[in-house]
Amino acid sequence: MSTTGERPVDALEREALCDLLAEVGPDVPTLCEGWTALDLAAHLVLREHFSRWGERRMAGEKAKGLPALIERLRAGAPALPWRVPGLRTLLNGTEFLIHHEDVRRANGLAPRTGRPDLDALAWRTARLTGWQAARKIRPHGLELRVPGGPARRFGAGGAVLTGQPVELLLYLSGRRGIAQVDLAGDPGAVAALRDS
């Protein structure tokens, strides 16, 4: 689940996102409202190196420029907690996967296919975020389904969200406008999920 070849999925996604940021440049949009690629890169650096930050620190990181931020991201995260096996995959792998798609999708790039490591990570994380979403729509239930694959139910009846694991994760992490999913089921549960 965590590796392609010998490299952990979070390391692969870190590298791929850095490559994409270098390719698209600092000024392209992302799916993070109001953020450019430069904003996103600064966020990723700050997230790994500082427990708290405000606008001033964000501006300071952005002033260093995208190439410097990419270089810092490529250098890797501090040892704790970011390099602890298991945690690194779940925390950084998920973060880089979602933000990689934030840049890709905002700039017209198609969903990636043929990456079982990303699908496994996304399904693991979607099960956790699905549980959180289901709590918000109680008394309705929520079911996550992968076509021809696994399903996970939280409560009885309710909304049924169907899609590939990465698409489910994107929907559950607030990227609803671009997530390629089908939402069906009880109308009240569907409305509650859309509004949550």
UniProtKB/TrEMBL annotation:
SUPFAM superfamilies assigned to the protein according to its UniProt record, in alphabetical order: DinB/YfiT-like putative metalloenzymes
InterPro entries: DinB/YfiT-like, Maleyloyr_isom
Highest taxon listed in the record's lineage: Bacteria
Family annotation (NCBIfam families): maleylpyruvate isomerase family mycothiol-dependent enzyme
Protein name, per record: TIGR03085 family metal-binding protein
Source species taxonomy: Bacteria, Bacillati, Actinomycetota, Actinomycetes, Glycomycetales
